[in-house]
Amino acid sequence: MGAMLLDSGKLTPENAERVLRMQKELGIRFGEAAQRLGLVTESDIQQVLARQFEYPYLQRGEANFSPNLVAAFEPFSPQVEALRAVRSQLMLRWFARGRRALAVVGVGEGDGVSMFSANLAVVFSQLGEQTLLVDANLRHPCQHEIFDLKGRQGLSDMLAGRAELDVVQRIPSFVDLSVLPAGTLPPNPQELLARASFRALNTQLESRYDVVLYDVPPFSKGVDALAVASRAGGVLLVARKDRTRISNVSRMAEQMAQAGAEVVGSVVVDF
């Protein structure tokens, strides 16, 4: 732990020696001695422990990610505990069956689907699953903003035959997480997503990653969601508390099933 605190700049070599002396005198752990001396915080210790056990997360200000990416900054909060519960259910109900891809869909704009998808992708990567988050919202994409991604090419460019898999971007803060941004905003998103090339691309992505999550446009915006869900094979429905109507969720579930996508489950978000 001492070496990691040194490497991260939390301790100077001189302070590390002070900690070692107290550790030896009192027979306590290094982290406890450092805290007693007021050199590090409990948050510093938790972050180092997380790295030791290969459970990466960040302290606020460490990256330019969206502050609402709670799985990155507050992994022990009640919200992220709830995300892990959703992850466990999806592992049992879907991914344990050999499936790799899943579309995440909400009824209307403002349902929080993109942020939910981003947080869900982070917790899957923290499990050690090679995770790819695909921004399939070719109308109003935002994953590039959430993860502060550079570059303009992405999914739309691949479907148009103008880019290859090298447009997928690794997220260095999370070893097992990658993001495929939406790319150039096309004039024909429905037609792009309906192409046979999307089916072939999904098959290719499934062969490379353990989990492929698609952030999909709102169901109310057209057939984009149906096109993506049918390619993925499964869909997770997202409803917003006190905003989404149950009747709309039921209608969406029916149409997803008719399009050949299995409704794996549903979640209610509150923000």
From TrEMBL:
UniProt keyword Nucleotide-binding present: yes
Listed GO MF terms: kinase activity
InterPro entries xrefs: Bact_polysacc_biosynth/exp, Cellulose_synthase_operon_BcsQ, P-loop_NTPase, T2SS_E_N_sf, Tyr_kinase_chain_length_EpsG, Wzc-like_C
Keywords annotated in UniProt: ATP-binding, Kinase, Nucleotide-binding, Transferase
Lineage: superkingdom: Bacteria
Gene3D superfamilies for this protein: P-loop containing nucleotide triphosphate hydrolases
Protein name, per record: Chain length determinant protein tyrosine kinase EpsG
Provenance organism: Massilia agrisoli
Lineage: Bacteria, Pseudomonadati, Pseudomonadota, Betaproteobacteria, Burkholderiales
